[in-house]
Amino acid sequence: MMKFVKYFKWLLLGITIAIIVVFFFVRNTEDLNNIGMYLSWAYILLGIAVVLSVGLPFMYIAQKPEMLKKTLLNFGALVAVLVIAYLLASDDPIKLFNDKLSSTAESKIAGLSLNAMYILVGIAVLSLLAGGVRNMIRNR
Q: Which pLDDT tens digit goes with each residue over 74-105?
């Protein structure tokens, strides 16, 4: 199983690097009308990440049932962050690269993504700072 994961990871990395090379070196980057292939690959990678992010904790819970409470608590915290990010997101249309405006749903999803990233990065920075201060206090 571990060898499969290792080879799968390297396969995804190789395909991604090939797509990046094609995007930046082979084709004209000023022509953004044919960007569908790149977005499709990004959606595939996002789907894999979501499936693994949701599936792996359940596999872990099946092996160690006592971790169910902690896993559900973490999942609830993530859902809370996403709900807060959604409520803070604006649905004002965004001007796209082809002078069209995005729909309200697309704007809401973009705002949700940005707000969730800001909140999660803020939590990560605060966790790093709190851990550093805690270690400084403990080691005195």
A: 889 999 999 999 999 888 877 777 778 878 88
Query: In a 10 Å sphere around its CB, with 0-12 CB exposed, 13-18 middle and 19+ buried, how is residue 121 labelled?
Result: exposed
Q: How far apart are CA 51 and CA 44, in angstroms?
A: 11
Query: What 8-state DSSP symbol labels residue 99?
Result: S
Residue 51, token pair as written in the block: 């499936």
Report the number of secondary-structure helices (H) and strands (E) in the chain. Answer: 4, 0
For residues 87 and 81, give the distance between their C-alpha atoms in angstroms, rounded to a whole number. Answer: 10
* Predicted TM-score (pTM) above 0.70: no
CB neighbour list of residue 41: distance below 8 Å, 6 or more residues apart? 15, 16, 19
Are 116 and 85 contacting, i.e. CB atoms less than 8 angstroms apart? yes
**Backbone region of residue 45 per phi and psi (left: phi > 0; alpha: psi in -120 to 50; beta: other values):** alpha
